[in-house]
Amino acid sequence: MSFATKIFSGIFGQKKMSQTVWIAVAIFLLAVLAAFLIYPLAWNKSVDFLNAQKNETPFLKSLPNIPQFYNVPFRLGLDLQGGIHLVYEADLSNIDKDKYDESMQGVRDVIERRVNLFGVTEPLVQVDNAGNHHRLIVELAGIKDLHQAIEMIGETPSLDFREQRSEQETQEIIDRYKSLSAEEQKKFSEDPYFKEPSALTGKYLKNAVLQFDQNTNEPQVGLEFDGEGAKLFEELTAKNVGKMLAIYLDGAPISTPRVEEAITGGKAQISGNFKYDEAKELVQRLNAGALPVPVTLINQQSIGASLGEKSLNQSLKAALIGILAVAIFMILWYRLPGLVAVLALIVYTLIVLAVFKLIPVTLTLAGIAGFVLSVGMAVDANILIFERMKEELRWGKSLGGALEEGFNRAWTSIRDSNVSSLITCAVLFWLGTSIIKGFALTLAIGILISMFSAIFATRNFLKLIMGEWAGKRLWLFGIKKRPE
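Above: the chain's sequence. Below: its structure in token form.
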């Protein structure tokens, strides 16, 4: 038995205290790790000081430096970070009604890739159908150049087919690229592997469909060209038998199939160990470039960073006040168990914020509201447990027995309420808009972690302080007098 375990066992008179102590230590270390993840500057400043001292000490200088802590910023949404909100109306007048959804999803995919190239860390591109109106909602957090974003998004997707270069051509272009300066390399745009776009473009592609091989049942992508496109495709495949024929969308390759033989009739299949989702995505991209789906900007809104910063500060202030109010209530009403619950609540808060960073979750005002609500739900579980403990103590049970009964009897109520809340979160996330999804996600994460903090952390913290000394001071648990 370790020295620390002997001390705890001697003070509190608990059996199996060693296990409880180590669990409490593990929870504490997890909370410390989460705290450094949330605010790595605290670790990094200390490490910089220690490394500087080490490097000035001759016999320590050869030792490696203490590493910096993993540093990743919180991902803030449009309403907190500022940015651009755009609404586009899609013109589907030339599209068959049964292809509306497919066309909109294809255009959405293209626009999302465009804004990714623009440098947005997590763009939101969402399809919104209301009656006969088919719209795309685009949110670009942190972007300030409104006009450039509009120009990039507003173009109709372009699809083209390109022939493979010879090995000699490829090597010449690569050598030419290597001979340039770093600044010139940034502006270099010549493709070393495929030639300039051929005459075969997306306007000749009638349709792309998801098919399955009759022998292997593997997914394939079927292509169908119109009359003129069939001739161009036949000429192109005849010239490139045994070579790759690249399909480019918006200047980026989306597929590079190898031509096995000249293809006549205007129909072809692309195969090659596709997964179902990969083949489906390729079909969407091909159709987005093939189908004329122009989009028109009908609403634009630029949200300043100062407004986002103000909203963030107010949200954090409200969250802090809410947590402090809950902590004060728990301590005043439940006394010692309330204090333990506050410690567990601190652990809960640190772990939740760390998870938000690691996933990462895009924090919006609604998301912060979901987090604050989950704090209240975390305390609800403790209230159920503590009230049950007080009842057991009033009926004459020992402190240890009351603790076990309190947790065991309250568990079913906690489980059922949290599961019903998680089901609601799942429905909101599945059917809701972006703001509602952010609320549902943060609330769901908070609920899951609150079950850990209420059932596991609080329970072990209470076990740690249980003993004869606590049994003689039931006023610490809100019990004035035991029944005679």
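The CA atoms of residues 130 and 423 lie 26 Å apart.
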